[in-house]
Amino acid sequence: MRYKVVLNGCSPGFSSQCRAVNAFLADTAALDTEAQTIVFYNNPALMQPLIKETPTTLLHLVKIAEYEAETVLLLLAELESSNPAELYLFPGDYAGSELAVRFAGRLGGSSLVGVENLRLESDHIICAKPVYNGHLQGTFKLRKRPFCLSLARSISGRGNNQASEKRNVNKSDCTDEPLPAHLMERLVETAESLGELEEARFVVAGGRGINSKVNYMKLQQIASYLGAALGVSRPVAMNGWAPLAKLIGVSGAIISPEVCLALAVSGSPAFFSGIERSKHIIALNIDPQAAIVKNADLAVIDDYKAILTELTRLIEKDKTVKWSG
Amino acid sequence: MNVLVCFKIVPDLDRLSIDDWMIDNCARVETRFVNKIINPYDESALELALKLSEQARGVGVAVTLQALTIAGGWANLALKKLRALGYQEAVRIESEEELSFDPEKVATLIATYIHNTNSIDLVMMGRQNSVGDNAKTPLLTAELLKWPCINQVTAVEIDTAGIYQVTSIADEGVITRKVKPPCLLAVGNAPFSYLRVPTLKAIKEQAAQPVKTLDTAELRLFSPFLPLISGVELLDLKIVNRKRAGTIIEGKNAAEKAGILYHSYLKGWLADL
Ligand SMILES: Cc1cc2nc3c(=O)[nH]c(=O)nc-3n(C[C@H](O)[C@H](O)[C@H](O)COP(=O)(O)OP(=O)(O)OC[C@H]3O[C@@H](n4cnc5c(N)ncnc54)[C@H](O)[C@@H]3O)c2cc1C
Ligand SMILES: Nc1ncnc2c1ncn2[C@@H]1O[C@H](COP(=O)(O)O)[C@@H](O)[C@H]1O
Predict the structure, then answer these.
(1) Which domains does chain B have, with CATH numbers?
(2) Would the CB of A27 count as within 6 Å of ligand 1?
């Protein structure tokens, strides 16, 4: 099947977009080898070293002034309208999942967001994705071409199989494209801690059971003492106890540390899919029936504050022993 | 300025325990007995719109609020509650159909309503409904109307000239845009957006007033949009098993449990980092 990959080269997550698409392609049989990747980018200096990571050897680099969904959609629809591919793959980040749906809407195709796997049939495709807030997996049949899919955020990265091959690059300059008429001003505030949780090897994740902003701040002290990054579940961010950048889950960071200490979270799938790539999961919860208890490797049924107090004491003691020895 | 907020009532899936998930032959889960809530992202959209109307009043701009849901009569209670909170109009498009997995149909109905109403300049929706997990309706509605759309919105304000200032989350960070209406906003994780509670007095006042109801067939008659055929069909559902060992550390008190956790497991794991 003739397919194209569409990536956002203006995003700091470009490498992980490439890795996720590569992993997905490696698991998907019977796709064309002569595929193309379209990359929208604005900074050639940043783009150049990343080209070798792109999923296909055929590349179309489209230079734009800045990534604004309205503009990118317009350009993409223009580019593809005369001869659309049968299948378009978009990464599972914010930009990719928006573009997949709107692009399908414009071209009269069918779309699906958060796709975990794909099977080709003669006149349709079959995809699986999470539904019921991640509690279940649904299998879907898509019939209208072009099929526009954004990938599940949980698809883990993988290096490129074609990394050593040369790229066949085609370039367009669309930096003159005017800002959309409705947009009068646009200001981007780059997040400071971008990628911090994703890269951490030890993460403490706190849930609604921490109960207050004061406790969140205490947790922050303890996490930094333990050398862990601190993340939170949705209610903690929604209550304003923690900044949104700390959110873990389907709508936040997808982490893959060696150790994740999940405390005072119930472990709903929307949260759990953010931590399920952790090597070791430890749950601290007062409720033995909480889903997190069954889905963790280890669980302690107790007040998280009491356990953390004891843990820091033990670590402190260990440090002291090392010092005197 | 006329603001429309679309919302869906969903079962509170957080309340279902692992054993409650039963899938029937038609790839549906029995959720009739689960407590119903306003979809979490829609709750945020509804609250952000209330905040917007207060902020607008502060700068001397009049904003009217409308709430819309496509649902059966069981949704009337929620619509009345929204009126008690300050929504001037609460409309229900009559449908007993299960639409959770048909965002194309929902978007067509909503776009038709907006088109026919002809006075709405800002539409707010949640970014995703928690049953279908589609994350498509606001985007498709914007495409049908040929309106600009901003996704993952966390806050919105208006200035004296009727220009909206919209804050949203993107892959590169937080983006603040000034936009001219009309525009569609899909609300994401917006802090401080749990829906406020109406006063008893306001609820009583609204209880007797009927809810405006529209018929889908009638609405479609006047639709400039072709019936959108999604081309997407749900075939089946399966339960995702996420179970790990779930070993519970036993001990007579916190100190003992923490001791086992630390010495037998955590210390070694952390040493490997
Ligand atoms: C479309 C959609 C997307 C979503 N995306 C996300 C997401 O990305 N991330 C996310 O987190 N959520 C997300 N959610 C929300 C999710 O469904 C849950 O509502 C949320 O994860 C619950 O958070 P929680 O576990 O912190 O709170 P709760 O479910 O209230 O659990 C609190 C837990 O704390 C325990 N506890 C209380 N006190 C203590 C104590 N002293 N010591 C130890 N334990 C204690 C309780 O036993 C309980 O298990 C999403 C929801 C929707 C609809
Ligand atoms: N039946 C409905 N009535 C009104 N709004 C809806 C309905 N279904 C979905 N929506 C809106 O569309 C958003 C996204 O839903 P979905 O695309 O199904 O994930 C929801 O958060 C609601 O704001």
Answers:
(1) 2-221 (3.40.50.620), 243-273 (no CATH)
(2) no
DSSP class per residue in A171-234: EEE-TTPPPPTTEEEEEEEE-TTTTHHHH-SEEEEE-GGG-SHHHHHHHHHHHHHHT-EEEE-H
Its pTM stands at 0.96
As a dihedral over the C-alpha atoms of residue A11, residue A59, residue A157, residue A50, rounded to 10 degrees, the angle is: -60
Q: How far is CA A154 from CA A16, A93, A182, A264, in A?
A: 11, 10, 34, 23
Q: Which residue has the tokens 């060992």?
A: B245
* Residues in chain B within 8 Å Cβ distance of A102: 139-140, 142-143, 149
Q: Are strands B122-126 and B2-6 parallel, antiparallel or unpaired?
A: parallel
- Contact yes or no for A291 and B18 at CB 8 A: yes
Least confident of A163-177, A250-264, A296-310, B232-246: A163-177
CA B242 to the chain's CA centroid: 26
Establish whether this prediction's ipTM goes over 0.90: yes
Chain B hits for A114, Cβ within 8 Å: 133, 135
User: Which of B5, B39, B104, B216 to probe ligand 2 with, by most ligand atoms within 8 A of CB?
Assistant: B39
Q: Which atom belonging to ligand 2 lies closest to the Cα atom of B68?
A: 4
Q: How far apart are CA B55 and CA B59, in angstroms?
A: 7
* Structure confidence at residue B33 as a pLDDT band (50, 70, 90): confident
Between strands A202-206 and A229-232, the pairing is parallel
Query: Which residues in chain A have Cβ-Cβ distances shorter than 8 Å to B270?
Result: 202, 227, 259
With a cut of 90, say whether residue A34 has pLDDT above it: no
Point out the residue among B176, B179, B237 whose CB comes nearest to the CB of A187. Answer: B176
